[in-house]
């Protein structure tokens, strides 16, 4: 059975992206020194890094942040529609992680290659550096969510059962790994430093690419709480690899209102082919953001401090998940702020799923990103020599939803060659058939993850 995502019962959300561009064929001199914030080894003396400081959130205009969210969400819906064409039982994408990794690559693109990437990423081609500035603001805004949630939890906690710091995590980290004999262009390094908090950590891809692969895998595993292992499989890099750009997002937060474990019961989940599978359903009655958009029931389940939410869309009987997904736009109910709440009797399956790595290359090509994958690509803004092109874009994902905490993880790699029953009657929502799921940052509206579950019993791969 082919599967593309992960969902489950546990405690956190992790998203991770890597972009690798390869096949710069000649050699050049390495530039710079100093370590990079949030990137590779903290004190790597062989890092090429700009002296430009990270631009603080306070210095970024709201318009740039809003534009970044608008582009990300349009990219999210577009990418998801194309990934669905690849098939699979359970599907989960991380558009935020993918766009961060691809945007770092975009920083080195020029000419028609840059124009095509802007189209695929839903960027304003006239925005200039504002696109990077907006992503910088978004990542720093997200970085503050967990600390705010923990502060609120401690303020209202039972002194005998204080919240665990380890249950409140949300970090956005970037790193870039480049061939040590190449010269990495200063404007590219300035963009990385100012907006992504990283530099280029030099590796010997030409003579020891597998050692570099293991080094990058170790970084990925460490920065995703050991959830994403072996992102780059043997053979994914070779002697033509020249650069690997990585974004990792790690999120772990409790529900705003936890499910009571004693109320979790077994029941039947009806799959798309009408067959049934027995699974565990968590149950809760509470006021949630809720809307019925005519095709589906859509409920927003807030995480601690209510700045992030898990949104579930359950198509009505007679409407297939595929039919519902075909109508999705950025203005669809799962992606907009909820203006009303309802008392909802919710029954939600516990699900754990981990995907195999799958390719985004075809989806991105269909979205207009053609030249980046060709020998004629123009990534002259990255390095000298400048004959770099992308050979594939890979993603691996995981998500887990349990009674107390939510957990999810995703990795994207662009590999280059060269309550109470009293009161109002609650709305019944029994999520016992295929459903859409997303993770939304409420203050900005950014879509962090988007996918669907058709079989909660499919645990995928480790």
Describe this structure in words.
It is a single chain. The model is unreliable at about 1-35 (pLDDT under 50). A hairpin with a 4-residue loop joins strand 19 (about 435-440) and strand 20 (about 445-455). The longest helix has 23 residues, at about 60-85. The strands form three sheets. Strands 1, 2, 4, 6, 7, 13, 14, 16 and 17 form a nine-stranded mixed β-sheet that branches. Strands 3, 8, 9, 10, 11, 12, 18, 19 and 20 form a nine-stranded mixed β-sheet that branches. The protein is an alpha+beta fold and about 450 residues long. It contains nine helices and 20 strands.
Report on the biggest sheet.
9 strands, mixed
Could you give the order of the helices and strands?
A: EEHEHHHHEEHEHEEEEEHEEEHEEEEEE
Structural class: alpha+beta
| Termini Cα gap | 15 Å
CATH topology of the largest domain: Antithrombin, Chain I, domain 2
- Which regions have little confidence, pLDDT < 50, spanning 5+ residues? 1-37
What sort of overall outline do the alpha carbons produce when their principal axes are compared? globular
Number of helices: 9
CATH class (first level) name of the largest domain:
Alpha Beta
- Under the CATH scheme, the architecture of the largest domain is 2-Layer Sandwich
Helix content: 10-25%
Query: What's the alpha carbon Rg, rounded to whole Å?
Result: 22 Å
């Amino acid at each position: 059975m082919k599967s593309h995502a992960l969902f489950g019962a546990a405690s956190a959300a992790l998203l991770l992206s890597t972009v690798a561009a390869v096949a710069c064929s000649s050699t050049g001199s390495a530039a710079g020194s100093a370590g990079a914030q949030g990137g590779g080894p903290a004190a790597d003396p062989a890092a090429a890094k700009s002296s430009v400081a990270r631009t603080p959130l306070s210095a970024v205009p709201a318009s740039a942040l809003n534009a970044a969210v608008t582009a990300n969400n349009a990219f999210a819906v577009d990418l998801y529609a194309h990934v669905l064409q690849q098939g699979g039982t359970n599907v989960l994408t991380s558009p935020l992680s993918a766009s961060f990794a691809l945007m770092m690559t975009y920083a080195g693109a020029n000419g028609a290659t840059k124009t095509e990437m802007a189209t695929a990423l839903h960027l304003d081609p006239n925005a200039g550096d504002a696109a990077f500035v907006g992503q910088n603001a978004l990542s720093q805004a997200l970085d503050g969510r967990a600390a705010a949630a923990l502060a609120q939890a401690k303020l209202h906690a039972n002194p005998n059962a204080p919240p665990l710091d380890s249950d409140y995590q949300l970090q956005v980290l970037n790193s870039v790994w480049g061939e040590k004999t190449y010269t990495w262009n200063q404007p590219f390094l300035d963009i990385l430093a100012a907006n992504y908090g990283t530099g280029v950590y030099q590796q010997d891809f030409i003579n020891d690419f597998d050692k570099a692969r293991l080094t990058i895998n170790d970084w990925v595993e460490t920065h995703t709480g050991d959830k994403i292992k072996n992102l780059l499989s043997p053979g994914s890099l070779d002697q033509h690899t020249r650069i690997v750009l990585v974004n990792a997002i790690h999120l772990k937060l409790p529900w705003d209102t936890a499910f009571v474990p004693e109320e979790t019961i077994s029941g039947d989940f009806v799959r798309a082919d009408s067959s049934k599978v027995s699974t565990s359903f968590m149950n809760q009655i509470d006021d949630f953001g809720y809307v019925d958009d005519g095709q589906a029931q859509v409920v927003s389940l807030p995480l601690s401090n209510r700045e992030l939410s898990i949104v579930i869309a359950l198509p009505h009987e007679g409407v297939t998940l595929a039919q519902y997904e075909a109508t999705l736009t950025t203005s669809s109910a799962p992606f907009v702020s909820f203006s009303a709440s309802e008392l909802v009797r919710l029954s939600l399956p516990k699900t754990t799923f981990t995907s195999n790595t799958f390719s985004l290359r075809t989806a991105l090509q269909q979205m207009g990103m053609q030249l980046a994958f060709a020998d004629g690509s123009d990534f002259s803004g990255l390095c000298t020599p400048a004959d770099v092109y992308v050979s594939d874009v890979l993603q691996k994902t995981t998500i887990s939803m349990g009674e107390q905490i939510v957990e999810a993880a995703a990795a994207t790699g662009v590999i280059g060659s060269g309550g109470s029953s009293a009161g109002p009657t609650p709305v019944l929502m029994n999520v016992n058939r295929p459903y859409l799921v997303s993770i939304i940052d409420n203050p900005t509206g950014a879509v962090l993850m988007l996918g669907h579950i058709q079989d909660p019993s499919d645990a995928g791969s480790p």
